[in-house]
């Protein structure tokens, strides 16, 4: 019997990422300056990005799919890595956790996200999810001497395990019903055998939605988010707020709009109250927060609710709007965390909202950057955040969900209170203490990239939206 080697070209980015991540781990043994490892990590992801163009196709009988949809999300993941590494270099030195495995774990977590985005099979999806999750659990508890960091890792791990259990149980039910875990085959089987009203399929769909909701921090499966975001290293909080969330939406779009599209009325009915609760809880509870990382945690929950509108719409425009919004969210959210990291210095954490009082008077440039990011998160024109919400709301209206958009607009108006409160603290109050900024060339570059993304996409959004529309299969 002749053994045929499968075509691995679609897996080229993942194979290259695996090799380079392992190389970063080994390089830590001989390279003493961890800043060098940071530079090598950024070079690695650029090398991986270079392999995207020639990697389109499928592998292993459709279990792995490399297409425009997955490539768009991989670009978001690569951007997330680059910005995270840039804001990490000085921060982890200040926190005294300047360890080489930090960068390797970020790359391995990103590898899991890439596998998730390309999953054409529920088993491959699970493998990618676990690789991403296990790496992120360790990163969340990376400040080993900090009780809050340990708490963040444990809570994230325990609730992540529940999410994995829901995913596996839902997968087993679908396999028992259809005899396959391939997404395309599942959709075909449902159509051929008229299973749209089958209670077992409905229950399996609910389990999968619950698992995905954990990963995107949707209410009521958001319990881990505030504590994990507050306790994790701030650079990892920024990483977690973008990468795993985008990966969760990537698989949600792939599973719901491909494998389970024949039962769209059912999963849309489930997602609508989840989206409303997510927007409501995220925006309302954020008002009472005094820690800026916890405030941005609830902000992240609320933004997941907005992005769900694109999935609920269930159209090409809806998915393209969701993809665009996640790219925009990466720029504005990591930019805000970069400013928070600038306030971190020896003996001063700078993660309380009161720490920003009078920042405009002492450090006007840092305050100006934070104002731009807060405006974008609020959705004030001409920032990218406004355009992201505009396209999301428009796609939901076109799909017949006008009433849902009205609710989203109301909650978006509520969000202005806690975002603009930061602006008020910075500009309208006198500084209570002198804050020394921890600046570095790498943080400056990260802020320049995020600022450019927020402004350019805000002024010229059509190019990004069109790219997302082309990418959606």
From TrEMBL:
Keyword presence, Cell division: no
Ranges annotated as spanning the membrane: 12-31, 38-65, 71-93, 100-117, 123-145, 157-180, 200-224, 236-260, 266-288, 295-316, 322-343, 364-381, 401-422, 443-464
Known catalytic reactions: a quinone + NADH + 5 H(+)(in) = a quinol + NAD(+) + 4 H(+)(out)
GO CC entries: endomembrane system; plasma membrane
Major enzyme class: translocase
Location of the NADH:quinone oxidoreductase/Mrp antiporter transmembrane domain: 119-415
Intracellular or extracellular location(s): Cell membrane; Endomembrane system; Membrane
Superkingdom: Bacteria
Topology term for the membrane: Multi-pass membrane protein
Annotated family: Belongs to the complex I subunit 2 family.
Alphabetized HAMAP family for the sequence: NDH1_NuoN_1
Name recorded for this polypeptide: NADH-quinone oxidoreductase subunit N
Gene: nuoN
């Amino acid at each position: 019997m002749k053994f045929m080697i499968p075509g691995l070209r679609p897996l080229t980015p993942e194979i290259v990422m695996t090799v380079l991540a392992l190389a970063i781990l080994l390089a830590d043994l001989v390279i003493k300056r961890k800043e060098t490892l940071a530079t090598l990590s950024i070079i690695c992801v650029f090398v991986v990005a270079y392999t995207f163009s020639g990697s389109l196709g499928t592998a292993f009988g459709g279990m792995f799919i490399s297409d425009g949809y997955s490539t768009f999300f991989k670009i978001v993941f690569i951007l997330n890595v680059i910005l995270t590494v840039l804001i990490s270099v000085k921060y982890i030195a200040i926190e005294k956790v300047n360890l080489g495995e930090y960068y390797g774990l970020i790359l391995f977590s990103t590898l899991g996200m890439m596998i998730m985005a390309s999953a054409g099979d529920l088993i491959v999806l699970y493998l990618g999810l676990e690789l991403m999750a296990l790496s992120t659990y360790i990163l969340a508890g990376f400040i080993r001497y900090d009780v809050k960091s340990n708490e963040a890792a444990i809570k994230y791990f325990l609730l992540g395990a529940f999410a994995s259990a829901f995913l596996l149980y839902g997968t087993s039910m679908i396999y028992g019903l259809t005899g396959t875990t391939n997404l395309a085959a599942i959709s075909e089987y449902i159509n051929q055998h008229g299973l749209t009203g089958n209670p077992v399929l409905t229950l399996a769909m609910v389990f999968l939605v619950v698992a995905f909701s954990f990963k995107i921090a949707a209410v009521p499966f958001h319990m881990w988010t505030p504590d994990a975001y507050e306790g994790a290293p701030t650079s990892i909080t920024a990483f977690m707020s973008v990468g795993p969330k985008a990966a969760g939406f990537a698989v949600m779009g792939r599973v719901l709009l491909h494998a389970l599209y024949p039962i769209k009325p059912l999963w849309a009915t489930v997602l609508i109250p989840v989206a409303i609760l997510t927007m409501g809880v995220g925006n309302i509870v954020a008002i009472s927060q005094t820690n800026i990382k916890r405030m941005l945690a609830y902000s992240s929950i609320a933004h997941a609710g907005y992005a769900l509108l694109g999935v609920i719409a269930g159209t090409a425009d809806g998915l393209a709007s969701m993809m665009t919004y996640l790219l925009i969210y990466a720029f504005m959210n990591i930019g805000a965390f970069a400013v928070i990291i600038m306030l971190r210095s020896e003996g001063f954490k700078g993660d309380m909202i009161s720490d920003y009082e009078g920042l405009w008077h002492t450090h006007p440039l840092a305050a100006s950057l934070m104002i731009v990011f807060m405006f974008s998160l609020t959705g004030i024109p001409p920032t990218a955040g406004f355009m992201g919400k505009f396209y999301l709301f428009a796609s939901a209206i076109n799909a017949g969900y006008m009433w849902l958009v009205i609710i989203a607009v109301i909650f978006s108006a509520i969000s202005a209170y806690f975002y603009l409160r930061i602006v008020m603290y910075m500009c309208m109050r006198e500084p209570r203490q002198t804050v020394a900024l921890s600046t570095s060339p790498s943080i400056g570059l990260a802020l320049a990239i995020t600022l450019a993304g927020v402004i350019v996409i805000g002024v010229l959004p059509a190019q990004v939206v069109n790219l997302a529309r082309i990418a959606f299969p």
